[in-house]
Every structure is written in C-alpha cells, then in structure tokens.
Amino acid sequence: MKKKILELIAKKNKSKIVSLTAYSKNIATILDNFCDVILVGDSLGSVLYNYKSTREVSLDSMIEHSKSVRMGVKKSLMVVDMPHNTYRNPKEALKNAKKIMSETKSDAVKLEGGKKICQTIKILVKNKIPVMGHLGLLPQTDKTFKFKGKKNSERSKILKDAQLLQSAGAFSIVLECVETSLAKIVTKKIDIPTIGIGASSNCDGQILVFDDLIGLNPIDVRFVKRYSNIRKEMTKAVASYAKEVRYKKFPLKKHSY
Q: What is the pLDDT of residues 151-200, one digit of tens each?
C-alpha cells in the first residue's frame, strides 16, 4: 500500500484529516499546502458545468480535470471520483480505474455504494488500485437530498456497509449527510478513517467543496461554512476593471509594451 495512504490511515484517532475538492492546477496548488486529501470530485458537474446531477459527468471530463489538478499536487493524497456508470461491474470498473490512474497519476479512486460494490473494490485493490468508499447520501444514485440514518434500517445498513467496504479493502470512507450519532458509531466500529461532509465532527476528518468554502458558489446548505466571500471580492474587482476601461484609466502606459 502507498506510503501516503498508510500515513492517512495512521491519522485515525490521532489527528483530524483535512480534505477539499479541486478541479484545476491553480486551486490544487493552494490546497496542497494545507490538505491531507485533495479530491477531484464529480461535484464539478454542478459546480462548473451547471449539470442537474453528478450523473451527467463523463469519464473524459474527470480525467482532464484530474490531469490539471495533478500538476498542482505535490504533497497531498490525490483521489479521483469514478463517475456514474463507469463501475457497473468489476470488469468495467477495472478498465476505467486503470485509465484514470494511468492518465492522471492519481493516488486512488473513490466509488459510491456499499455491499453491491464490494467485489469491485476487491478486484481493484488486487490490481493495486487503492479505493476510497462513500456511504450515506449517494449523489450518483439518490434522487432526493436527505440526511441518512434516522431510521433503524438505514442505520444498520450503513454500519454493515462500512464494515464490508473495509473488509473489501477500502482505505477510508466518506460519510455524506449521515446522522450525528451514526457517524460516531461507524467511525468507532471500523479501523479505517471516516471523512465527513454533513456528518458531524465525530468523523476522523472533513471534506468540503472548495467553491462552497470560499463563497463562490451561492448555495445555502446547513453543513457548509463560508470562510470567505470571494464572490463579493470578484464582483468588486470586475466592477473596478469595467469602470477603468470605460473611463480610459486602464491600460496606462506602464501596463503596455
């Protein structure tokens, strides 16, 4: 297993894991100074392309963005989401995961789901492709946005799935929109790290979409904290530029060759 992955696993119960999404070299270069994990998420579908769901994201699109991110990542563990309908069976998953790994030089891939993808995970791991799991809210298949784990049936399924993913060889699991007490139970019951998004501080680490964190994406989700309002700053900058162009204050001679 890769050194970076072993180091990530070793953080469990010792220090919190910091993770963010990136879709380009420029952003990845900034995040690489602070993150343990940089995820090239299929969330780029809604964040960058205004798709209605992540199901519309293609493999080629993920690979192109991952190539860009790779150029900015030197220290962090780089993980790439396998998009919808690229791992419907082990054979398909292996072919596409190999393509992602070889073309992007990523450290691992991430798959959504529980019991039904365990055989796929085993095949990938056997072929030296590290896998991060994803449980709770599954954007690629869930049709409605709602928190998971309020029903006893959901709670037992998510816990069992987490244990199965670990047994299959996953090195960590993202828990998305999982009820607080369940996130705590899952995190305690498995030996690999959990990374939460809307799943409380009971997880071993946290991940957010970078555009949400900086306030570029004008959404209002209760588990997102905006650490900056970059949208406001960008608006001010563009307004100043437009004004100076119209009043012939830009470019000045010193801006010209």
A: 999 999 999 999 999 999 999 999 999 999 999 999 999 999 999 999 99
**Structure-token pair, residue 176:** 């998305």
First-to-final CA distance of the chain: 53
- 241, 250 in Cβ contact below 8 A? yes
3-state DSSP assignment of residue 105: coil
Catalytic choice (176, 179, 233, 244): 176
pTM over 0.70: yes
- As a residue count, the chain comes to 257
Question: In the structure encoding, which two tokens stand for residue 65, read together?
Answer: 């963005």
The domain spans of the chain are 3-229
Q: How many CA atoms lie within 13 A of 28 on its CB side?
A: 25
Q: Check if 244 is active-site.
A: no
- The hierarchical CATH code for the domain 3-229 is 3.20.20.60
